[in-house]
Amino acid sequence: MLRILVPSAALRCRLLSTLNMLVPCPCCRSLTLDRRADDQICKVCFWHDDGQDGDEAELVWGGPNGSLSLTQARANYKAFGACEKRFLSNVRPSKP
User: Where along the chain do its domains lie?
Assistant: First the structure.
């Protein structure tokens, strides 16, 4: 039986950052971060990447993202283009 191993999202991000490639923002999925969980702010949605990811997306961690969960930030990005309306003037369109 042939088994194909697919690396986890976290491992893929580590591999991309090792190759000096941008990694996707956990909120908008745009390739804007040098590495994950390094307190960088995405220029496309203004999410502050504090390391929160899919399996904890419903939780509100507080910290740099305040009372916003990753799930709510993703919904906000889809609805109006930023993780929160107050950041609309800080974001830019995603590049293809």
Answer: 24-90
Six token digits for residue 34 = 């040098």
Q: Quick check: helix, strand or coil at residue 45?
A: coil
What pTM value is reported for the model?
0.79
Separation CA 43–CA 89 (nearest Å): 11
- Does the structure show a pLDDT above 70 at 23? yes
Helix or strand (DSSP H, E) at 71: helix 70-80
Of the pLDDT bands very low, low, confident and very high (cuts 50, 70, 90), residue 93 is very high
Report pLDDT digits (tens) over 43-67. 999 999 999 988 899 999 999 999 9
What gap in Å lies between CA 59 and CA 69, rounded to an integer?
Answer: 6
Give the whole-angstrom CA distance, residue 37 versus residue 92: 21
